[in-house]
Amino acid sequence: MTADGFESLLAELFGYQRFEEEPGLEKLIMDTAGRYPRQLGDEELEFVNAAGDTGVGPEPPRLPEGLEDD
User: Where is this region: Disordered (predicted)?
Assistant: First the structure.
């Protein structure tokens, strides 16, 4: 299955679950949608492992001294 096909299937499943109006599912869907408001870019995916934990992976690039955000 292609990535587009998977995303389409997932959208259909979420849509069906919303149609069913089951409160438990709706709560899970809203929680998931709230935690993931957009897709992660390729650069961001480098810092997420297979279990979904962040902070595991290559060290993020650092700005030269004096250019860091305060």
Answer: 50-70
